[in-house]
Design goal:
With 351 residues, the chain is an all-alpha fold. The protein folds into two domains: 131 residues, Cytochrome Bc1 Complex, Chain D, domain 2 (Orthogonal Bundle); 160 residues, Cytochrome c-like domain (Cytochrome Bc1 Complex, Chain D, domain 2), CATH 1.10.760.10. Helix content is 37%, strand content 1%. Strands 1-2 form a two-stranded antiparallel sheet. Helix 2 packs across helix 8, helix 10 crosses helix 15 and helix 14 packs across helix 15. The longest helix has 14 residues. It starts with a helix and ends in a 14-residue tail after the last helix. It binds heme C (2 copies). The site of one heme C has 25 residues, from helix 14. The site of one heme C (HEC) has 27 residues, from helix 3, helix 4 and helix 5.
């Protein structure tokens, strides 16, 4: 009886992705009842995603930093920024983002609808005033017609803008990777090298302790002590960004904050100091550089990091003692095994 209770409790604690340590093939994303997917809404969201009106100076769209040609990221260590400012974190891919329970490296947003307004308002990203944006979009007859079709009337609100963008983001799914075919019964879907890498991922490398489920992510935050980039620590523009975000999140000592506090910023729980979200590994070959601050340019470097037992002083990882051949097999699994069919996208005509 006691055992059954423990099993039930265990199930409650697990993320929607499935059982700890078990990988799952791709499937459709969950859609919230308040924002059902329709073809017209997805199309509207796509236009808004590519529309530079969403930024204060009209230079930047969501696609600037989540570029379809760069795996819906921007290929930079730390992401692009509003002129005269500098961003402080790496732009994550938006592929499979709809599977995530928490958004942002520190998990400060819970839904795509909520998240979409952050970059528009952010002083160091799009720096747009949302009251102004609503009026701006209302002046475009094509948009008013589309809002009417999608939402029943032509009222352009920030909530509707976010709903449409979120609907578009839910279409960005990695499908038909060799791993998916392998998990659904095609024993030869992974090349011999990738198969060896898969075995290391599941076994000696202990990667699946945190990277599991359909998204190869546990929806949790871990303190791996990825090192800071010294150049970033010296840049006053990044210091301003970091302190600004910390101030918004009521971090008392924000003026002297000299590094990225990670999840601590949100929870103020000591255990979350420099904890970051486990990212998806889907399409990982196309979304370098890696980690919240883009400190690693290649997957080989990331594997080296884990093989060494993670960053200095961390208490979650241990050295793995992988041989050079095993490290390479692991890299091949990540590169080949998790790359799906190319995502097709027809670029919209922004009105
Ligand atoms: C100037 C670059 C930039 C622009 C423009 C931008 N983003 Fe981002 N985006 C980022 C960065 C950097 C992060 C990570 C920030 C963090 O974790 O604190 C991020 C995070 C996200 C996430 C969370 C992903 C995850 O895995 O947690 C989503 C979703 C997202 N952006 C969607 C959008 C949408 C929608 C737009 C347009 C309304 C947009 N972004 C505009 C740089 C940008
Ligand atoms: C204790 C949990 C944990 C384990 C075990 C773990 N990871 Fe991670 N992984 C993370 C977290 C958390 C991050 C993000 C760290 C950051 O941004 O600072 C990450 C980041 C990564 C990234 C970079 C992803 C990106 O988009 O930036 C790769 C690649 C990766 N892990 C692969 C692996 C491999 C391969 C293994 C096994 C050798 C492994 N991980 C083991 C938690 C874990």
């Amino acid at each position: 009886m006691r055992r059954i209770i423990w099993i039930l409790l265990g199930l409650l604690c697990l993320p929607a992705g499935g059982f700890a340590g078990q990988l799952e093939p791709c499937r459709d994303v969950p859609v919230p009842a308040q924002n059902p997917q329709t073809a017209a809404k997805i199309e509207l969201g796509k236009k808004l995603f590519f529309d530079r009106r969403l930024s204060g100076d009209g230079t930047t769209s969501c696609a600037t930093c989540h570029n379809p040609e760069q795996g819906y990221s921007d290929g930079l260590e730390i992401s692009l920024n509003y002129p005269t400012t500098r961003n402080w974190r790496n732009s994550p891919t938006l592929i499979n983002v709809a599977f995530q329970k928490y958004l942002f490296h520190d998990g400060r947003a819970a839904t795509l609808e909520e998240q979409a307004l952050f970059p528009m308002m952010s002083a160091f990203e799009m720096n747009q005033n949302l009251d102004f944006l609503e009026e701006e979009i209302r002046t475009v007859p094509e948009y008013v017609a589309e809002f009417t079709e999608v939402f029943g009337d032509g009222d352009v609100t920030r909530e509707r803008i976010a709903m449409a963008i979120a609907a578009f983001e839910r279409t960005l799914i990695s499908r038909d990777a060799p791993l998916d075919r392998f998990l659904t019964g095609d024993a030869s879907a992974l090349s011999p090298e990738a198969l060896k890498g898969y075995e290391i991922f599941m076994g000696k490398g202990k990667c699946a302790a945190c990277h599991f489920g359909v998204n190869l992510a546990d929806d949790r935050f871990h303190v791996l002590n990825v090192r800071e980039n010294p150049e970033h620590l010296q840049d006053p523009r990044i210091a301003a960004t970091r302190r600004f975000v910390a101030k918004v999140y009521h971090f008392e000592e924000y003026r002297t904050l000299a590094e990225d506090p990670g999840r601590y910023l949100i929870t103020k729980d000591r255990q979350d100091w420099k904890a970051f979200k486990t990212p998806t590994l889907r399409e990982i070959a196309g979304t370098a550089p890696y980690m919240h601050n883009g400190i690693y340019a290649t997957l080989a470097e990331v594997i080296e990091f884990f093989n060494a037992g993670g960053g200095q002083g961390n208490t979650v990882l241990q050295p793995l003692q992988l041989t050079p051949m095993e490290k390479d097999q692991l890299r091949v699994f990540l590169e080949e095994g998790l790359t799906g069919a190319p995502l097709t996208l027809t670029y919209p005509k922004v009105p």
